[in-house]
Design brief:
The chain is an alpha/beta fold. The protein folds into two domains: 311 residues, Spore Coat Polysaccharide Biosynthesis Protein SpsA, Chain A (Alpha-Beta Complex), CATH 3.90.550.10; 102 residues, 3 Solenoid (UDP N-Acetylglucosamine Acyltransferase, domain 1), CATH 2.160.10. It contains eleven helices and 32 strands. It has a seven-stranded mixed β-sheet, with helices on both faces. The chain has a six-stranded parallel β-sheet with strand order 15-18-21-24-27-30, with no helix packed on it. A hairpin with a 2-residue loop joins β2 and β3. The C terminus is likely disordered.
Length: 452
């Protein structure tokens, strides 16, 4: 099994700075999407592809809560938690550097906020066949409309730019559209190397990357990189265009922090020998000829088919969209039957619960209608309640005669009888008093949040 050749690392130490109104009091990776926490989908993806163990990077003060939550799920992976201080401001590259001594093979890097149905096997196979240094999984970008609960505002979406060779998925440039506010200029150096470059803005980066072990070794010695997506990976992609007069001589240099120059000596770390050169020229797996001075570093995109489902839950709109879609795609992204979205120990007395996820030990009374929603664990929903297109988190009580449409109700809140909420975001531990009528508002006990 090809997955046995790789290690896996999941990054789950994000603080959810883009949607603080959702993560108050909980780790970002435990935000509910359907019947499971967000990180479950990344771990399940690895488990489905034959991985037996994974390193999960978390904040130190969140480890116990994450561990306890995952123990209640069907994850069979052996999880090796690595903790980082909640007081430190370190990026993904910094975190990977901290576990470099545990990385013994090529590695699959996965963000905790990705939900995708696409198989990893073609990505891993492409990595091997093309002797790639990096392969990043991309999905066709889609922008379905969703009305976001809370005050009306414009939500900015980040757009990535990827430069590829016209006749292949060879990645020769990566950047963010926000870095080019007025115009975009491509380096003449790239054009001289490749003749032409296709610039694509229609792809969604899943933040699933397969990388060579030598990149981790390089990162361990060179301390100038803090993030993977913004710094390290673009640097490696750019180094494809560098000339190496005699790469075998570079390999003979001793490695130390003193003699490593990030501008020139990254090639010291590449596992490239005279035998590798002969294999590369004669291998039947080498599917693309090179127009470069050297092919020691090779970076590629693996682009999923147009109809592939995938989403990164890294903003309030994407959180809403993921929960809106999860009922329809659950079997595709989990290999579990659709019946698994309703916990067996829930008590659903109503016959009007359709296209809805129901968590453990939740009680839903009769004469209640719920459609296209997610209801968390240990909730109580009383009679004559109407809920549609909403996400109700754990330990929420909804009293009689309440109407909830396109809302997010966070943990341990109570919606008192007779209330009507439309397009509202209700924070944790918030009490909505009886007969409240609200629309497009964010109600919270916290004073530290800016209005969204």
């Amino acid at each position: 099994m090809i997955a046995a050749e790789f290690q896996a690392v999941v990054f789950a130490a994000g603080r959810g700075n883009r949607f603080p109104e959702l993560v108050e009091g909980r780790p970002k990776c435990l935000l509910p999407v359907g019947p499971y926490p967000l990180i479950w989908y990344s771990l399940m993806m690895l488990q489905r592809h034959g991985f037996q163990e994974v390193i999960v990077i978390v904040l130190e003060h969140e480890k116990l809560e994450i561990q306890q939550k995952l123990e209640k799920t069907q994850i069979k992976l052996r999880i090796d938690f690595h903790t980082i201080s909640g007081d430190s401001d370190i990026g993904t590259a910094d975190a990977l550097r901290q576990i470099s001594d545990r990385i013994k093979t090529d590695v699959v890097l996965v963000s905790c906020d990705i939900i995708v149905e696409y198989s990893l096997y073609p990505v891993l196979q492409q990595f091997r066949e093309q002797n790639a240094s990096i392969v990043g999984l991309m999905l066709p970008s889609s922008h379905p409309s969703v009305v976001v609960p809370g005050p009306k505002t414009k939500h900015k979406s980040d757009k990535d730019l990827f430069g590829t060779c016209p006749d292949s998925t060879r990645l020769v440039f990566m950047g963010s559209a926000s870095d080019f506010e007025t115009d975009f200029k491509i380096s003449g150096h790239l054009l001289r190397f490749y003749g032409a470059v296709d610039i694509r803005s229609d792809l969604m980066d899943t933040h699933v990357y397969v990388i060579k072990k030598w990149i981790v070794d390089f990162l361990d010695v060179v301390s100038g990189f803090s993030t993977l997506k913004g710094e390290l990976l673009p640097f490696i992609v750019k180094k494809q265009n560098s000339s190496v007069i005699n790469p075998l001589q570079l390999m003979e240099k001793p490695l130390s922090e003193i003699n490593v120059n990030t501008n020139k000596d990254v090639f010291q770390f590449t596992s490239h020998t005279a035998l590798d050169e002969k294999i590369n020229k004669s291998s039947i797996f080498t599917t693309q000829g090179s127009s470069m001075v050297n092919d020691i570093i090779q970076c590629y995109l693996a682009i999923a088919p147009e109809e592939t489902y995938g989403i990164r839950v890294n903003s309030l709109p994407s959180f809403c969209l993921a929960n809106r879609q999860i009922y329809e795609v659950f079997s595709k992204v989990s290999d579990f039957p659709i019946t698994a979205v309703k916990a067996q120990n829930s008590d659903i007395k109503s016959t009007q619960v359709t296209s809805t996820v129901v968590g453990e030990q939740t009680i839903i009374s009769e004469k209640t209608s719920i459609t296209s929603s997610t209801i968390g664990s240990n909730c109580i929903v009383k009679q004559k309640v109407l809920i549609s297109n909403s996400t109700i988190m754990d330990h929420v009580t909804i009293e009689e005669g309440v109407t909830i449409d396109n809302c997010i109700i966070c943990d341990k809140s109570m919606i008192s009888s007779g209330s009507t909420l439309r397009n509202c975001l209700i924070g944790s531990n918030f009490l909505v008093s009886s007969n409240t009528k609200k629309e497009n508002v964010h109600l919270s006990n916290s004073d530290g949040f800016m209005e969204i």
